[in-house]
Amino acid sequence: MAEHTSMEEFEALLNESFEMDTPEEGSVVKGKVIAVEAGQAIIDVGYKMEGRVDLKEFANPGEAPEINVGDEVEVFLRSAENSRGEAVISREMARREEAWDRLEKAYADDERVEGAIFGRVKGGFTVDLGGAVAFLPGSQVDVRPVRDAGPLMGLKQPFQILKMDRRRGNIVVSRRAILEESRAEQRAEVIANLTEGQAVDGVVKNITEYGAFVDLGGVDGLLHVTDMAWRRVNHPSEILSIGETVKVQVIKINKETHRISLGMKQLQEDPWDMVAAKFPLESVHTGRVTNITDYGAFVELEPGVEGLVHVSEMSWTKKNVHPGKIVSTSQEVEVMVLEIDPAKRRVSLGLKQTMRNPWEVFAETHPEGTHVEGEVKNITEFGLFIGLEGEIDGMVHLSDLSWDQRGEEAIQEYRKGDIVQAVVSEVDVEKERISLSIKALGGDKFADAVGGVKRGSIVTVEVTAIEDGGIEVEYEGMKSFIRRSDLSRDRSEQRPERFSVGNKVDVRVTNVDAKTRKLGLSIKAREIAEEKEAVQQYGSSDSGASLGDILGAALKSGDE
Q1: Could you tell me the sign of the dihedral formed by the alpha carbons of 44, 50, 55, 61, in that order?
Q2: How far apart are CA 248 and CA 250, in angstroms?
Q3: Is residue 226 within a helix (H) or strand (E), and if so which, with residue range?
Q4: Which of 160, 172, 464, 541 is deepest in the core (most CB within 10 A)?
């Protein structure tokens, strides 16, 4: 009877075990730690199944495992039985499943999650989010590039999930978003306590080419290079250094963008308030060249006050030359104040005005007729340019090169670099022109020769050549030509061959052309003039006397 009962109890227990729901592989189950040995925890997951889990799966990155006998833990059942009859379980996979559930909810609710950076990978870092591993891009670590991430490793801190894909097991997080949000709140609080025009202390955090960022206690303001000092500042590092505490004035606050503009010079006295009194027009001052451009040079008259010397006001003689070839940076120069515009904060300066106009000096020291000597600087189609004292040039026009040659021919005899002599013929200071003459060096031979000769004068010339069309004659070294038709009053005597070279002949001057430097001469005109004179003196056409009688009487009178 007892044996029969035992069989019934065994059958009931067996049926009960068959009816029990065994856990499904691939699911998370609860278990109890029943032993810790050989670096592993032995966990009873019920259903008469036990499994082993490495202790490291119970540790957070960078921390020691915390697990004791009797602790209840959740594990992931990978397989109900292995070759040794043990369940194959994983604490890490259970944590991951649990973490994914928690993270998906946080992502949906746009909540922050806690995690710790534990490794570095290409392009960023790995973050443990309580079982799930996320990727932290390098650009999302901080609001500014981080050179050394060592202090951040293993430190529990909040992150914002940017995106996640459970099927692919991808999670991307950001630490920067948390910092920016925190900074935005802090900035809003600090900005709310600031007012435009307020003077505050700040610490220089960063220096750039265009200015410096100053920390005002949780919020940064930009101190532009133009607002650092009234004088010209080439680079902010000239007057600021990182970590330095400075007093600045709040110039402008943008409530929407939370941008703050700061200034240092606004806390100092504006030197422009006294410019008109200290630098009156046409006064001369010594300044320092601070900057050179294509259109001129800036000269500092005093700290904070600069003026521009336009390229046209730099030199009397150097035209179309880059200012850098006349002055150099940091050079001290004397300048004259030409114009002041307080509204635009501009001062126009002149460099050449501090020196005398070289054309005025030349006009004073070289009146017309003065002999000068200089080098041929340039040869053009209309004349020569000669270098003179004071770095100025004078021009010899083609027509002033020679008395005897055409200008186009005479200019062929000159070369650049030749040293020549000339006479000053005119100085125009206003137009900055000096006219010179080379042909005037020996005087005007034509003017000297015909000085007392005028139209109608009777002069004696010497025949120098006989030609078919007339004869060539010379008077006081000046050559002239008498045409055949002017050789005699009688056509029969208009023969050039009746003259010989060396003959002396009296002729009448019919024209004096100073421009062409020629005398118009005629024997015929002389004879006609003599006839008229004889008629007037010894008779008339009404007296009945013949021309022969009149001329005979005139000749007889002449003999007496």
Answers
A1: negative
A2: 7
A3: none
A4: 160
Q: At what angle do helices 547-559 and 523-538 cross, to 10 degrees?
A: 90
DSSP 324: G
In the chain, the domains with their CATH numbers are 26-109 (2.40.50.140), 110-180 (2.40.50.140), 194-267 (2.40.50.140), 272-343 (2.40.50.140), 358-437 (2.40.50.140), 445-538 (2.40.50.140)
What is the residue type of 146? Answer: V
Q: CA-to-CA distance for 314 and 350, rounded, in angstroms? A: 6
**Percent of all residues in the chain with a pLDDT value above 70, rounded to a whole number:** 83
**How far apart are alpha carbons 331 and 34 in whole angstroms?**
90
3-state secondary structure 150-202: HHHECCEEEEEEEEEECCCCEEEEECHHHHHHHHHHHHHHHHHCCCCCCEEEE
237: alpha, beta or left, given left = phi > 0 and alpha = psi -120 to 50? alpha
Write out the two tokens for 216. Answer: 């005002």
- The overall longest dimension of the chain from CA atoms, in Å, is 213
**438/444 Cα distance (integer angstroms):** 11
Q: CB atoms < 10 A from the CB of 537, how many?
A: 11
The full length of the chain comes to: 560
The DSSP code for 87 is B
Per DSSP bridges, beta strands 211-215 and 259-263 are: unpaired
Please name every residue paired with 395 in a beta bridge, in sequence order, or none if there are none: 385, 435
Cα separation, 444 vs 439, whole angstroms: 8
335 confidence band (pLDDT: 50, 70, 90): very high
d(CA 472, CA 480): 6
Q: What is the pLDDT of residue 359?
A: 87
SS3 at position 109? coil
The H or E element spanning position 74 is strand 72-79
- What is the pLDDT of the chain when averaged over all its residues? 81
Q: What is the mean pLDDT of residues 494-500?
A: 89
Residues paired with residue 305 on neighbouring β-strands, in sequence order: 302
Please report the DSSP string for 380-445 in residue order. Answer: ETTEEEEEETTTEEEEEEGGGS-SSS-HHHHGGG--TT-EEEEEEEEEETTTTEEEEESGGGG--H
